[in-house]
Design goal:
It is found in: Cytoplasm. By secondary structure, the chain is an alpha/beta fold. It contains 8 helices and 6 strands. Helix 6 links the parallel strand 4 and strand 5.
């Protein structure tokens, strides 16, 4: 109770299966006494492109634009654009970050990747001398909850897609672990569009059940072995 949760949600349609998963998470976690904030990226018309507009005022180097350097410098002097400051504040306050999205081309949708690109700037989320276990967002948990188009057998070592964990490596390890965030087991709903209504209901019940005991879970071992063994 009293925990703060940020759900970063990337789906265009509230009546979608992802929309149902979001609704369940908000209801269940609120019922537990958590305070839940949702960044509904499509509804917010969140800008996914990392551009000069993310810096308010002067540039550190007006001769040649380097996004990483400029956002780092802007962060230090409080010169990031308003939308980034708002998202960073939500991240800063959260004990748990849940990312809810459909898998597109073995990856998160562009709007969510853009959120990662723009919000998790150097100085705020990581410093090169303080990455991974020393990352700047320690003491936070994250959970990737997503749907796939292909069935579970497609995402196995023998399947055409390879192990689903390979897909999770850049997201969980390359972004979250790099920033010091601990990672809970992903929650994957395989091919909800291709299964019976009954099976979909079971998936929603499984998510509800998992959320009930979420705070008791241990994070995964963030090592290459988890992904590639």
């Amino acid at each position: 109770p009293g925990k703060k949760v940020l759900i970063v949600y990337a789906h265009q349609e509230p009546k979608s299966f992802n929309g149902s998963l979001l609704k369940i998470a908000v209801e269940e976690l609120t019922k537990q006494g958590c305070s839940v904030t949702v960044s509904d990226l499509y509804a917010m018309q969140f800008e996914p492109r990392a551009t000069r507009n993310d810096i308010v005022g002067h540039l550190h180097n007006s001769e040649a634009f380097n996004y990483g350097v400029e956002t780092w410098e802007a962060y230090k002097r409080g010169g990031l654009s308003k939308d980034l400051v708002e998202e960073q504040k939500k991240v800063q306050e959260a004990d748990l970050l849940i990312f809810q999205f459909p898998l597109f081309w073995f990856n998160m949708p562009a709007i969510l990747k853009g959120w990662m690109d723009r919000v998790l700037v150097q100085g705020f989320a990581y410093d090169l001398s303080k990455a991974c276990d020393g990352g700047l967002l320690q003491d936070k948990l994250s959970l990737f909850s997503f749907t796939t188009g292909g069935g579970q057998e497609m995402y196995s070592k023998q399947g055409i897609g390879g192990d689903i964990r390979y897909v999770l490596w850049p997201m969980q390890h390359g972004i979250m672990h790099f920033c010091g965030v601990k990672v809970l087991e992903p929650h994957i709903c395989y091919a909800p569009e291709n299964v019976s209504e009954e099976k979909r209901k079971e998936m929603l019940v499984a998510w509800t059940q998992r959320l009930k005991t979420l705070w008791k879970e241990k994070p995964i071992d963030c090592s290459p072995e988890w992904y590639f063994k």
